[in-house]
């Protein structure tokens, strides 16, 4: 949790995340760019200036575990306020009560942050907080500028809502209106308790980019979010401090996914020397490295012997093998980087904290990845990953003093 500075306002961000969802099953755990929606919301809150505590309100143990893994606290929501008719305000008030009872201090500002807005930024959350802590407003929310002409059906035909249909001013001649995005709401905590809803007193807008506005209500929305994530997310690659182990697929990740055959049907593949250099550097840095492959060709084991790293190949369920390996090595999967290229890598992507797609990966794999290499598989993509962790010269990081 962010540390509270002396005399700084107590700002509690509450992320409601029920387990049930009719439109998208297990919606709040659905990954976008390799991160579950609840994790994306938690990360945005933790990165926002002014936020002192982040709580996820949930009725689901899996969501609670995910929330804690991303650094948030969790409040188990009672059944009375966990149904389809429960309001977000009731979840926020319950979480606020639990926080103040547990911490013995009163919140100054409370935030309602929605998991279903995957492209909410830390800056937008911080701006909403600042509107309240500065005294400029009692409530604030994210909104996107809109110049659209709205209509409604009537008995005598469609009629304009925000315009006279006989007068169509140009866009530049119209004052913008604002669409509520549903992403974040900030409220003076005492005022919220008094009024019981998210809009009271003076309300301020936190204007956001319309291109980033997306609410996930059905599978089509989720598919759009996954497609847009590579364009809208800030580029992010892991550092040495983020990772405790590196697990690598073989075909298409350490090779170019092609197979060469001789007249006797023997298979040959091409590997990149730069990848071998990167793997050797990772080993020197003390990071466990594993090759995990469904391929039964002995070339996989031969390559692993050459690189002096362990290998599990001919594996049907790579995710189960990876989970067992992590348990045997006492490694938290949330701190594993897994590099892959095709759909059989997706179960492993959902298990680890750093799913990475090589540049030539299948579109569905790129969409599920938390980071994507510029380099295609078989042409030095593993060397590129090693450079993320160790720097371009592949130097072993100096341990920080205790």
How does this model look, in words?
The protein has helices at residues 37-46, 61-69, 88-103, 122-133, 189-195, 219-232, 273-284, 298-307, 318-329, 346-349, 363-368, 381-390, and strands spanning 11-16, 31-32, 35-36, 53-58, 73-76, 109-113, 139-146, 151-152, 159-160, 177-188, 203-207, 245-248, 260-261, 267-268, 289-293, 311-313, 336-340, 354-357, 371-372. Helix content is 30%, strand content 20%. The longest helix is centred in the N-terminal third of the chain and has 16 residues, at 88-103. It is globular and about 80 Å long. Helix 11 links the parallel strand 18 and strand 19. Strands 5-4-1-6-10-7-11 form a 7-stranded mixed sheet, sandwiched between helices. The chain is an alpha/beta fold and 402 residues long. The two termini are 21 Å apart. It is built from 12 helices and 19 strands.
Main traits of this protein?
single chain; 402 residues; alpha/beta; 7-stranded mixed sheet; 6-stranded parallel sheet
Offer a quick outline of the entry:
The chain is an alpha/beta fold and 402 residues long. The protein is built from 12 helices and 19 strands.
Tell me about the biggest sheet? 7 strands, mixed
Structural class: alpha/beta
What is the end-to-end distance?
21 Å
Low-pLDDT stretches:
none
Topology:
Layout: E1 11-16, E2 31-32, E3 35-36, H1 37-46, E4 53-58, H2 61-69, E5 73-76, H3 88-103, E6 109-113, H4 122-133, E7 139-146, E8 151-152, E9 159-160, E10 177-188, H5 189-195, E11 203-207, H6 219-232, E12 245-248, E13 260-261, E14 267-268, H7 273-284, E15 289-293, H8 298-307, E16 311-313, H9 318-329, E17 336-340, H10 346-349, E18 354-357, H11 363-368, E19 371-372, H12 381-390
